[in-house]
Structures are given as structure tokens and as C-alpha cells.
Amino acid sequence: MEFTNGVISLVPVTSPDFPGLAEVKLLYYRAFQPNERREVSDLVAQLEKPNFSLLIIQMYEMPAGLIALWQLSNYLFIEHIAVTEQFRNRKIGETAIKMIADSQEQPVLLETAFPTETIAENRLAFYERIGFDIINENYEQPAYSPEKQSKKMLLLSNRSTMPDPIEEIVAEIYKVIYGQ
User: Dihedral, CA atoms, 46, 3, 133, 138, nearest 10 degrees?
Assistant: First the structure.
């Protein structure tokens, strides 16, 4: 899955020695709190799974961010998206998400932190501004490992009507993405 609009490109990482992956791993580590992410080695290990894609967001061929995606039964799930500090506030994240969503016949889902802090409120507002709605306010992101904790999150979709009941969607996310 590769996308480009001439300025921004979404390039799939195809191997652990892929050019630009070192920058992506550093961004991943910095952008997400420990309970909100895998260990970096576990992220790279996901590359072996056929329904997982790690995309480097490039702006004029310079690494500007990352998107981790899962193709599930009836929808695409964005597990993580982050833009490097030097490229923020240029609508890169918005453009990347829209490029993916516009290419899909099926809904695109993602999680975001429950808005208890300003940064979480801003993230939720960002997703709502680009067309995502909350589909589950009682969603809890499972722990990525036994040493980590689960986290109360919101589940969002770019479609107000989902093809499956929310319980089935959450069960598939838990099983496929979190191994539970």
C-alpha cells in the first residue's frame, strides 16, 4: 500500500533495514507513552504479519512521520500515527489519513486517548475535524505486554455506520492487534 500526492508520500517499510526506519523507530518511541505502544523491536516484528503495514510518511522524500495500519475483516485500523516535530502544523498527518481513508471502500478506525488532558482534547478535535466520529466511548486499549497497563481510550471511525456490531469490531481488534 503506497500513496503519493506529489508532495507527501506514504511508503511501506518492507524490511528491518529499510532506509528511514531508524528515524521512524525514534519517532515512535518519542511520540507515544509506554502504555500506548509496543516495544520498538515488537513493532518491527509486526512487519512479518501479512495484514500489518508500517508506512513512512515522507514530505519531499524526507521522513516526516509514521503510520501503523492493520487490514482487518471489514475495515482498516490505524494503530499509530505520528509526525516529527519539525514537520508538525503543516497538515501532514491530516493529509496522510485522508489519503488512506479516501482510498478505502471500507471504514477506517483508530483509537485516541480519552480527553482528560489538553493534548488529548486537541487530538480528539483533530480527528473530528477530519471526519472521524466516536463509535465507542467505553473502549479500553489492552495492555501491549504484561508489564504495561491497559488504557481508557475512544474508538473512532470515519463512517457513522459500521458493518458489524461494535462488540465484534472490538473483539477482532483485541484478537488481531493485541493478541487477546
Answer: 0
CA Rg, the chain, in Å? Answer: 15
If we measure between CA atoms, which residue out of 98, 108, 101 comes closest to residue 74? Answer: 108
DSSP letters for 116-179: SSHHHHHHHHHHHHTT-EEEETT-EEPPSSTTS--EEEEEEES-SS-SS-HHHHHHHHHHHTT-
Q: How many helices (H) and strands (E) does the chain have?
A: 5, 9
Cell representation of residue 65: 512521520
Residue 34 to residue 56: CA distance in whole angstroms: 21
Q: Collapse the DSSP code of 47 into the 3-class scheme (helix H, G, I; strand E, B; otherwise coil) and give the result.
A: helix
Please report, for residues 11, 40, 91, the alpha-carbon distance to residue 88 in angstroms, rounded to integers and kept in the order given.
Answer: 19, 22, 7
Q: What percent of the chain has pLDDT over 70?
A: 99
Please tell me the predicted confidence (pLDDT) of residue 163.
Answer: 80
Q: Residue 71: which H helix or E strand, with range?
A: strand 62-71
For residue 31, the tally of other CB atoms under 10 A from its CB is 17
Asked if residue 69 has pLDDT above 90, the reply is yes
Tell me what percent of the chain is helix, strand and coil, each rounded to the nearest 5: 35, 30, 40
